[in-house]
Amino acid sequence: MNDIQSPIQKPFVITVASTKGGSAKSTNAANIGAFCAEHGLKTLLIDTDTQPTLSAYFALDYMAPGGIHEFLAYQDVDPSHIISKTAISNLDLIQSNDPTNNVSQMLRNAPDGAIRFSFLLKKLQGYDVIIVDTRGTRDITVDMSVLAADLLFCPILPHTLSAKEFIRGTIGMYQELQTFEAFGFKLPPLKAVANCVDHTNDVKFVLQHLYQLFEQNFGQDKTLLDFHIPNKVAYREAATYSLPVYRHSKAEYEVIKSLCSLLLPQFVTHFGQGFKGE
After folding, report:
1. Strands annotated E in 35-140
2. Which residues, at least 6 apart from 7, have a Cβ–Cβ distance to it below 8 Å?
3. Cα Rg for the chain, rounded, in angstroms?
4. What is the 8-class DSSP label of residue 11?
5. Where does the chain have alpha helices with state H?
6. How far is CA 17 from CA 49, 211, 247, in A?
7. What's the first-to-final CA gap in the chain, in angstroms?
8. CB under 8 Å to 267, separation ≥6 — which residues?
9. What is the pLDDT of residues 142-195, one digit of tens each?
10. Which domains are seen in the chain, by residue range?
């Protein structure tokens, strides 16, 4: 297992968040994480959702006895007790093991509740990228994940109600968390992307208004990427087979490569290389 005490450069933390459920956060986290890992980046997935979709996405070569509960509850827990190893080389996982939501209650009662995650992540050495999946609602575990991130990645479904919830919920959360900046925290830049996009007129209409909204009302810290993830059955099929989508459908390789390059431009030279088994 990885030695969390060894000195190494701080990993880049991406938090995947949306207060609207069903926006494919876990699918995106899995595909981004696998792509990074298969292109030579030591990657850790962390599942903070009480519905452990990301935890169940990939087969495991080693299942740790603990997970996110122990990571947040015990500051000196041994890495082998909480970090599982997926069947994909370079891709590790801290599983969600909190079905009754005890973690949220514990954090709400703790004086360092919303900021504890930020400090604990600094102890996780040996990774290039950490990807945090969150639940599809406002919760202290989502707040802590945003505060700990270097980048906030938000998939948006291109539907009117989903877009309205994104503005009300996700953007509202982000603005409320700005109060932590008075205590030395710097909120991560927010990069949103339209997810499950088809070619219907309704989707084109919603996207047009979303781009106008971002351009006219938000600063440079909030960006709607000029890029979208298509609505294809391959993404659902890949999840069924516990595969990254680009392994199930080669047509999606360039989509995930482009997404990772936009989110992680500092690693773009890695993404130009092929991956094992290609």
Report:
1. 43-47, 60-62, 84-86, 91-94, 129-133
2. 125
3. 18
4. P
5. 25-38, 68-73, 79-82, 102-109, 116-121, 140-147, 160-165, 172-177, 201-217, 233-240, 245-248, 253-263, 268-271
6. 11, 19, 25
7. 27
8. 36, 39, 41, 128, 129, 260
9. 999 999 999 999 999 999 999 999 999 999 999 999 999 999 899 999 999 999
10. 12-271 (3.40.50.300)
